[in-house]
Design a protein that fits this description.
The radius of gyration is 25 Å and the shape is globular. The chain has a domain of 268 residues: MetI-like (MetI-like fold, Orthogonal Bundle), CATH 1.10.3720.10. The longest helix is centred in the N-terminal third of the chain and has 34 residues. It is 74% helix and 1% strand. The chain has 555 residues and is mainly α.
Length: 555
């Protein structure tokens, strides 16, 4: 009996490895933030938190963060709901391309969106110049950027596709019979939509709204670029305290306040998912109409025109600016690929590109390894009574913002053994591994759970050990899933700027941070060229991820 008990315990020993790694690389640095934020003069105290809450600037950060998040989520709903309606209810040429466009939040790093808005909606941007030429105006008619509405508009650009994807998926899953019954009983199309269709869509709308609200609350690159210190969010405030004002204890205290706020929103989002979920509806699906087959469909034309200006204008401006600033030229691409030192970047452009690709490749490999280990661990521990608590502990980095994680690692890099990573790309790799591996778990674990356990059991029956059964039976079946998860982690790491901004040192720059510094130096041609290359690489990777995910879903 003792031997069998020892065998059962020994089977769980490998599951301790992910816990040990996270305890060392995540929870210990997070403890540094907690200790610095809540200890003063050698004792635990809330004095620093109270001082921050009484600071008018900190209260302004809280108010502005919530205000812009609410407005951003509302505008994202207004722009994204019709797009989801269009995808779910109509067929037209280019529909699949438009559906692929809803991957914008995963394809475009936020700093490229901010740059596109500066070039297209700025005071001297393409849109203002076109309006001034068209109407003979002497001054720019639109002054949207560098304030609240510039941030809100950029967030809506970034998050309206999230609403579209939620709404389209929910609409396509509705059972058409209740709607047909309402029409048969004499209800008008509008009344049938209000009484039958809309209640079925509300769970998806509520989930998307709460998710977008959280994303806008934790946004960093867009408020930093388009708002600065005056229109800063809590994320930007932590960064300014830590890296600009060098007030590290205050940054730690503010990070704790933000962590409390983000965890509250995450809890409400999870609870909201349960409250709003309702009963899933399934059926043969609603039939799609051909767009512009009726005169009333012409009402879609103004929306499509406005959507094209909002969504295609900024990205087109970035690509065009990279070739046309200073005339048709490739000089900006030659600059981006130059090994010469740039004072705007703090390193050579080529070195920034190389560092970004190195960090993305290493961190995506690490995230795949850690995510696989965590997925395996959760599968082995699913019979335990505290499985929910263990899963929350293993996926805790998902609830911590990038700037807080960056600050935690920044504090830990002061002492060994973390000090070995300070000022090196491997410190950024560690941060990106922690930020991206939960997404690997979310992609890999459901596919792993869907495998027939009899396959691995048959291999063990034939004498294969557990690792050998995984390598010879399960791994070939999960190969596409692992590749899709790696591609997604690579794209996330390549476009991540928040943790990099907290951990960077002179000469250590990745692609998004280099773009931000080029924007700050008004070196827009080079910023556009680097952003175009970043868009091309991340777009290709995420397109491959989408195709792999579609094939896995088809299987």
């Amino acid at each position: 009996m003792r031997r069998s008990a020892w065998k059962r315990c020994r089977a769980f020993v490998p599951a301790l490895i992910p816990f040990a790694f996270l305890a060392f690389a995540f929870y210990l640095p997070l403890w540094e933030v907690l200790r610095l934020g809540l200890r003063e003069d050698g004792r635990w105290s809330l004095a620093r938190i109270a001082a921050l809450l009484s600071d008018p600037y900190v209260r302004h950060l809280f108010r502005f963060t919530l205000e812009q998040a609410l407005l951003s989520a509302s505008l994202s709903l207004v722009l994204g709901f019709p797009l989801g309606w269009l995808l779910a209810r109509y067929r037209f040429p280019g529909r699949e391309f438009l559906r692929a466009f809803t991957l914008v939040p995963f394809v475009l790093p936020p700093i490229t969106v901010a740059l596109g808005f500066v070039l297209f909606f700025g005071h001297s941007g393409h849109l203002n110049r076109a309006l001034m030429g068209l109407f003979g105006l002497a001054t720019p008619p639109l002054r949207l950027l560098y304030g609240l509405w510039g941030i809100v508009l950029a967030h809506a650009f970034y998050n309206a596709p999230v609403f579209a994807r939620f709404v389209a998926a929910a609409w396509e899953g509705l059972d058409p019979e209740p709607l047909e019954a309402a029409r048969t009983l004499g209800a008008s199309p509008l009344w049938a939509f209000i009484t039958v269709t809309l209640p079925g869509l509300l769970p998806a709308v509520a989930s998307a709204f709460s998710l977008v609200f959280v994303l806008c609350t934790l946004s960093f690159a867009i408020p930093l670029t388009l708002g600065g210190a005056r229109y800063a969010t809590l994320e930007v405030g932590v960064y300014l305290y830590a890296r600009v004002h060098l007030k590290i204890p205050e940054a730690a205290g503010l990070a704790l306040l933000e962590l409390l706020l983000s965890l509250s929103f995450a809890y409400l989002y999870i609870r909201g998912g349960g409250l709003f979920a309702g009963r899933a509806m399934s059926g043969r699906g609603l039939p799609r109409r051909r767009l512009f087959s009726r005169p009333a469909h012409l009402l879609w034309a103004p929306y499509l025109l406005a959507a094209a200006v909002l969504f295609l204008g900024p990205i087109g401006a970035v690509v065009a600016d990279s070739f046309l600033r200073g005339g048709p030229t490739l000089r900006w691409y030659r600059f981006v690929l130059s090994p010469a030192h740039s004072p705007f970047i703090g390193a050579s452009p080529l070195a920034a590109m190389g560092t970004g690709l190195l960090v993305a490749a290493a961190s995506s490999a690490g995230a795949l390894l850690l995510g696989t280990a965590v997925s395996w661990c959760l599968r082995r521990l699913r019979a335990l009574p505290l499985r929910g608590v263990l899963e929350a502990a293993l996926l805790a980095p998902l609830a911590v913002s990038s700037v807080i994680l960056g600050l935690a690692l920044l504090l830990s890099f002061r002492r060994p053994p973390f000090s070995l990573l300070a000022g090196t790309p491997w410190g950024i790799v560690l941060a990106h591994v922690l930020l991206t591996y939960p997404f690997v778990v979310r992609l890999v674990k459901p596919m792993w759970d869907a495998l027939d356990p009899a396959l691995a059991e048959a291999a063990r029956t034939l004498g294969a050990s557990g690792p050998l059964a995984f390598l010879t039976v399960e791994l070939p079946l999960l190969a596409r899933g692992f590749l899709a998860a790696w591609a997604f982690a690579f794209a996330l790491s390549l476009g991540e700027m928040t943790a990099v901004a907290m951990l960077s040192r002179p000469g250590l720059t990745t692609i998004p941070l280099a773009i931000y510094r080029l924007i700050g130096g008004r070196h827009f041609g080079a910023a556009s060229a680097m952003a175009t290359l970043l868009i091309a690489v991340t777009g290709t990777v995420v397109f491959a991820w989408e195709r792999l995910a579609a094939r896995l879903h088809a299987r």
